[in-house]
Amino acid sequence: MWKVKMVSLLLVSAVALTACGTAEKSSSEVLLYEPSVESGKMEEEKEEYETTLVRKETYKETYYDTADLEYTDTEEVYIQEEDAVLDAVKVKKYDKVKKGDVLAIYHVETSETKLEKERLMVQQARANYESGLSNLINQLAREEKALKQISTAAERKIKQLEIKKMKKEIDSYKKGEKEIKEQEKRYNKLVKMQGKTQLIAKRSGTVTETAKSLVGEDISASDKVVELRSNDEWILKVKDPDGLLRYNMDVSVRLGKSMKDYAHEVKGKVVTSSDITGVEETDEEGNNIVYIEISEADKKKYDYEKNNIYVYAVSFAVKNALLVDAKAVYQEAVEHTNKLFVYVMENGNLRKRFIVSNYHNEEEYLVEQGVSEGQELAIIDDMFLGRGN
Asked: What strands lie across the sheet with 84-89, from one edge to the other?
C-alpha cells in the first residue's frame, strides 16, 4: 500500500460504458460506473489516505484451528455422591495407572440433621424387620407344638401342610433383609465419607484428562474427575463452526509453537462429518465437531501428546481472481439492496465505482465485475465519509 495526500475528492458523474472501455476489453472487464449521490464537486478536503492496487492472485477461503487427540477407548470417572467436595487429584496427565490405584481424594459434606434422619430410618427399618421375623418364628413354634398334640393322621397331615406353608413365608420374608443390609451399608458409607475418601481406578490405563481445577470445589455427578484410555488408538478432533471442512477433504496437520511456526507437517483427511452421518455432533458451546485421520506411519513418527497440534485446510480456491483489500470496499443501501463500491484513483481524482463480489473473507474481496487488474483504489477513513456517526 502507498500513502498519499488526498487531492480534491471529485465524484464524477457516470459516463457511458462504451466511452470507458476499449475495443480490446472483454465483456468480463466491463467497468460498472455509477453516479455519485450528490452531483458536482464536494467541498475540498485535505486528508491523508492510503491506496491499494487491484491484483490478480488465487483467492482462498481457509480453515485453521487447534486440534485435540480423541482416544477411541476411554473411560470417564465420576464421583457418584451428593454433596461431594474434591480434596485432591492424585494423578496427572499421561500417568500410567493400574486397577485399584487411587485417582483422587474427596469427602462428603452432610449436615448433622440429614445424618440423624438417615440413622433413624435405617434403625426403624431394622427394628420393623426383626419384629416381623420374630412374630413369624413364634407363630411357627406354636404350630409345631400344636402338631405334637394331634393324634389323627388326617389332622396331622393338614397341620403339616400349614407348617410347611409358614416356613416358606419365613424364607420369603428373610429375603427382605437384603434391602435392609443395603440401606445400612449406604448409611455406614455416608458416615465414613465425611472423612477423606479414595476414588479408586476400576481398570488400568493412561490418564488423558484430570479435574485439578475443581479441587476444593463441590462436585456434582456430571463433573468428570479423571479420564483414562486403555489403548493408544486416537483420532484428531477439531471444531468447525462455519462448516468449512467437508468429508474426505485433505488437510495439513502441523506440530509446533503456532499455526505458522511449526516444526513438522503431515497430511490428514476429514473422515467423519454430518455429510455421512446426517447428524451434527456439537460441543457444549454449539460448535460443530469434525474428526481428522492421519496415517499410522505418521502417527508413529512424532509425539503428538506433547506437541501443540494445528489443522490447516483450503476450503475454497479460485485461481487468477481479481482481489481487492477488504478495507477498500464500502457498501450502501440502494433500493432495499446493499451494494458494494470502491473509490478508483483516476487522473488525480477519485471515482466511485460499484462492484460485484460473491466471495470475501476478513482480508479481501473476490471481484467479478467493476474493476480491472492494476487499478489504484483509495482506502478512505470512515469519519471522512461520514460513516463514523
From this structure: 197-200, 102-108, 84-89, 218-219
Task: Name the band, by pLDDT with cuts 50, 70 and 90, for residue 43.
Answer: very low
pTM of the model: 0.53
Q: Which residue has the cell 477488504?
A: 326
The backbone torsions φ and ψ at residue 212, rounded to the nearest 5 degrees and listed phi first, read -60, -30
Q: Which of these, 61, 62, 66, lies nearest to 311 by C-alpha position?
A: 66
170-181 confidence digits (pLDDT tens): 999 999 999 999
Instruction: Give the three cell numbers for residue 369.
Output: 465485475
> Which is nearest to 14 in space by CA: 385, 375, 351?
351
